[in-house]
Specification:
Structural class: alpha+beta
Distance between the termini: 100 Å
Shape: elongated
Strand content: 25-35%
Largest sheet: 5 strands, mixed
Number of strands: 46
Helix content: 10-25%
Radius of gyration: 46 Å
Amino acid sequence: MKRIFILLFVGALIGSSHLPAFGQNALLRYADKQYKLFNYEEAASVYEQAFDKKGKYVAAQMAAKSYQKLNDYENAYKWWKTTVGFEEASTQDYVSFAAAANQLGKMDELVVALDSLPKDGKLDKIHLDSMMSWYNKPVALEAIGVDSLNSSSADFGMVMDTKGNKYFASDRGAEGSSAKAALRFDVSNKLDEDHYAWTGRDFLTVYKINKDGQVATMNSPVPDSYHFADPFFLEEQAVAFYTVTREVKSVDGKKVKTRKMINPEMDYGQEQDEFVDYHPEIYFSKIGENGEFADYSAFPLNDALKYSLINPFLDESSNKLYFASDMEGGYGGFDIYVVEYDKDFNFGEPQNLGETINTSGDERDPFLFGKHFYFSSNGHFGLGGLDIFTADFENGSFSKVKNMGIPYNSPQDDFAMTLSEEGSQYLSSNRTGGMGFDDIYLIKDMYRRFLAKVEDCNGDLITDGFVAEFIEKDIDKAIDLERDVEGEIKANIAPEANYELKISKKGYFPVHDENISSVGMEGTLLEREYTMIPIPYKTTVFVDLVYYDLDKSIIRNDAQPVLDKLASLMNEHDYLDLIVRSHTDARASDEYNEKLSNTRADAVAAYLGQKGIASTRVHEEWFGEKELANDCGDGVPCPERSHQLNRRSELVLMAFADENMEYELPEDLLDLCSKPNLGIQMNVPTVYFDFDKAELRSEGVKQLERLLLLMKEREGVQLALEGHTDVRGSEAYNEGLSEKRAQVVKDFLIKRGIEEGRISYQWFGKSRPVHGCEDGDCTEAEHQLNRRTEIKLMLNEKNINASNEAIQEEKVAYLKKKGLISEVSGTVVVTGVFSSSTNATNHSLTSRLNGFADAGFFMDDASGLYYCYAVKSVDDANIAKQLAQVKKAGYDGAWVMSF
């Protein structure tokens, strides 16, 4: 209960008669006597008179203290402001000044005043910063007065029992029934109709509210009780603990002699020689069938004439009773203690909770809920008066005491925090805007709701296995999430706050949203949808082959563009690793060939190292002659072109190669669900044929070797073959020829181990030429482009390269229009090879600025690379001269390429 019992009725001990013209010292002595008698109104008036006489620090300080005791916030602020103007002002004076300014809401004036103070540690600036943060931080809770219960008197301490009944204490007495008739009070069994002289109201009594909302008084089972409050009901036994202040007639058989007055006090000790003080005690009773207290037993630490025991709280899980007391040996004022008990309520020795919880001020109202310990204090820094605090509780230890801030606390007294299992939070306060001296408040949730759905690439909810972390960024605090519906995340979010969400699941890219905000939010629901994308571990996205000369491991000129493209891709995408599998033909010994294949793999790694690719991203394997591409084994006579196919390095570019690693989703793959090959163009050949033929050329075989490698690496990929002819000959003949051209490619792949079910084929004769030759005047080169088998890579019924092809065609059309890209034939001087048209364009424009007017580039269909040239048509007689001119211009790596 708040300090309402500090107030005395004026004139109870001494009248406010006219004072003679005393000097200042005499006035101070007189005012001090009134202050000690709790006659604060008289004391305040006389301290003011003493200050007017001579303006001493002590007169201002004691006037401020007197008005503070009277809860006269205006005058308290006025006199504390006067007090801190003196050099003698103490740290506590500054704290009291801050509290008084706070109670009047004079925060701006307070900040200005504190900024002008000497920096000598008079007031902890951290405390002021905390106070300002409490006021400035948007709150998502609201304290609402329970107006159906509150009255013009003091009402406080809401608690619940196991049957759904609620209880509180009040001093409303018989007056309450007329003021709140709708509550239907049963006051027929009240102990006493006498008023408590210290407040002018009735003594405290416990009231019970049943599940139907009816309110009735509870009788104290302890004889001669004045105050009856602080009930606490056990769950496992039909027992209740409570506080009473009773008349003490004898101690150890000796009658207690009354003095001038009796003070049956509650909550705060007011020891004075003129009074016999009856301090509150703790009792406990069994609860009968009708809900009444059937008997009573005294807590063995009770000593009603020496100290107070209040606010019993029992933790049944550990058999511990917490309570507040001002007994000797504490830190000052009321401290919170704990004592163990057994099943028969035999109690051990009390233990002070220590300086983490207790201060030189008052600590009271203990309440333990889970791993959080709640209590009230005016000793820890707060908003004013008693504030509600929380501390972490684990393994019997307390830590991290924290003021609960607004709206739990106010500039006035806030205390008696209780929580129910269903989540209701009650507190008591005498804050402004209430109905009486103390009122009961319910904390209402003002949070907004956050709802997120977590889906896979198919739009189905991910129902298990993912972990989510939700952080309020402004305070770096984890927010509890609700996962009652599979695939959904729910949480309460505060208004005007910012959040981030992290979702993780093994085998999936984590989701990280840093832009969740309720600032300026309309409505009460903030919805999000997130897609969790599986990490495509060990996905081959690109393959190629490079070939070597007999008995050599040197990277040939024709291999450099392939490796350059791989280096470009690996530099652009750090999630790509390269597997290099090197081979030899069957000539020479097994031991020699194994070493040679190792050297060839090393050569690839070294070349890529020069392009900035770390060796850790290149994984070498070598096989010697163990894995031939054909039947040219030991002693088998084969042409050189067949041996050449065996002298190779297979280059497999693989994404997310480490299955034990949790990768972040790369920026270029944010839409990965719609990228069947991670957005990287596959090398897909077009196989060309001689006129009126359906046999594979050696060049076509070489291209299909690359396709074989791809098919072996990507088992889910399928092929769609389309056979075509040029426009010469009849439709019937060409239709049959185009079928053979598609069939021969299919047969080759099946013979080399590709399952027939992975290959489909169609034929179109001359109905889909690249060049229609409408004017009847096609060149031989144009006829050649029509004699072909086109190959499409299909994954999940999608053409892997379809979207890339559309973009590429658009780029090519634009560059052709600008004259930078064109069809070439004959011999050119190549100055560079690039994997992107942008780089090729920039290179060609630079070449033109360097004096090569014909500079441009062409795209190689087989590799997808862009070849830049400085000289387009090289005449055979001048090859050496023109190459020398290009190199002299700074293109040291230039080389001649013929078509």
